[in-house]
Amino acid sequence: MKNTSALIFTDLDGTFLDNDNFSYGQNIDYAKNLIKSGHFVIFNSSKTFIEIFELFSSCKINFPIICETGGGIYFPSELANNYQKKINSSYNVIYEAPKISQTVDKIKVICHDFKDEMKFFNDLSHNDKIKISNLDPDGVVLASQRIFSILFTWSSSEERLMKLQKTLEKINIRVIRGARFFHLCSKFDKGTAMVIAMNKFKKIYPDREFISVALGDSSNDYEMLKLADYPCVVKSSGNKNISYSDLSVDIVFSSNPAPNGWRECIDNILNNIGDD
Q1: Vertex 40: Cα angle to 34 and 43 (nearest 5)
Q2: Which stretches does DSSP call E strand in the chain?
Q3: Local structure of 134: helix, strand or coil
Q4: Residue 108: Cβ within 10 Å count
Q5: Most-buried pick from 16, 125, 227, 262 (CB within 10 A)?
Q6: What tens-digit pLDDT sequence spans the chain (276 residues)?
C-alpha cells in the first residue's frame, strides 16, 4: 500500500447512515481516521447537495460530494483550487449534469399517462413527504431542493414501469430505482460520476496510485459497485433489488446493517490488501 490511497465512494442512507433513524454511529470518526491515513472518503448519494452539506456542517467535515445519483460532483475548495466555478464558499464544481428543469415539461407530458401509478415527491403533501422519506420537516425541505433529478413513488407493475422507462428514453431520461424512491434523471449515474471523480483525483495527485472502493445497499448503487476495484454491499432491505450478475470481482457483504456494516466492510477490504 506504499504511496497508494483508497478512494472510498459511499452511499449514505442504508450504507453510511442507519436507514431508519439516519444515525452514523462511529462512522464520522472512522472516516476522519481514514483521511489521516492518506485515504479519501467521497459521498456518492441520491441526496441533494444541500442535504449532504448540512450533514457535513453539523459534523465539521468537508469531504468530496457526489449528489443526486451522480448529477453533481463537488470537491472542497482546498482540494480543487484550480477549478474556478464554486457552488458556495467551501466547494468547487467538478461536474454538473444538465438541469432537470430543461426537460421537466416533456417529462410531465409523458408521465401524464401514468398519473395514477406514480406520484412526484414534490407533489406530495408535507405530511406524506415526512411519512415516506422518514425525514424530519427541515430534512424534507432540503430533500425537495433537487437540481438534476426528480423523485417519485411507484404503485404499479414492473411491466408498466418498463413501459415508462422506454417512453422516457426517447427524451434521454432514465429511471433509477432507489431504496425508498425512484429517480428520473438524464443520462448519468453513480458509476459515471465515480469515474469522473477518480480521474480528477489522478490529476490532482499524479504521483499516487489509487484503488477504488464502493459501498452501497440498493440498486441505484449498482453502477459504482460494478466499476469499483472492491465493491461492498452493506446489509439492508434494499439488497434484494441489486443484481450481481455483471460484477466481475468478489463482493464484500457485511453481516451488520448500517451504520456498523459500513466500517465492517472497509475493515475487511483494508485488512485484505495489507493496510495497517
Answers
A1: 110
A2: 4-10, 40-44, 65-67, 72-76, 91-96, 118-120, 149-154, 174-177, 182-185, 209-216, 230-235, 252-257
A3: coil
A4: 12
A5: 262
A6: 557 899 999 999 999 999 889 999 999 999 999 999 999 999 999 999 999 999 999 999 999 999 999 999 999 998 877 666 888 889 999 999 999 999 999 999 999 999 999 999 999 999 999 999 999 999 999 999 999 999 999 999 999 999 999 999 999 999 998 888 999 999 899 999 999 999 999 999 999 999 999 999 999 999 999 999 999 999 998 787 777 777 767 899 999 999 999 999 999 999 887 644
